[in-house]
Amino acid sequence: MTQPADRLSAAFAALADPTRRAILARLSLGQTSVSELARPFAMSGPAVSKHLKVLEKAGLISRGREAQWRPAKLEAAPLKAVTDWLEDYRRHWEQSFDRLDGYLAELQNKKEV
Amino acid sequence: MTQPADRLSAAFAALADPTRRAILARLSLGQTSVSELARPFAMSGPAVSKHLKVLEKAGLISRGREAQWRPAKLEAAPLKAVTDWLEDYRRHWEQSFDRLDGYLAELQNKKEV
Fold it and tell me: Which of B4, B14, B20, B69 is 20 to 30 A from residue A4's alpha carbon, by CA?
């Protein structure tokens, strides 16, 4: 990236990684330490820390101030911003499914006649 | 990226760019050509084509078969997948706002006493 990313772009970019999404899923159950987070992923502490830095920069998590422990905590505001952006597109997939429903109903009617 | 991205990661990565989100916003009004898309962005055709390739690879758009025109069309299914993923986190920001509401109500009560 050559220019500083806007908040929404930073959130989308941070979410574009399955490990980071899994970390957020774990944090949605409660705050925890890097070593606790590393365990289920069979990842090193530094590898997890690197992912946490991306998530923190995007505002998706915050870190505690305790020198050793520094628990990571989910911050939901950027997820809400992302959802709000997607909300404008809801009618598009709802229309797609309505068209499919209409088509299936039509097939059903033909069968019954 | 060193490994092929999963569908959800590809969608998030494609959305992590303000120009690509603006292109999707334009396509949500109806399918259109590369030259039509390029106009409001003051971008070259090749620059728009590059963005369209990323969006197409992520399944967010499809392209028509007409050799010259090849209109781009919004495809909503990946946006639905992204929204479905975010839905699990809705209670987190709703809780945050509930706590804020509670705090504001408390302040209001104190004022009224």
Answer: B4
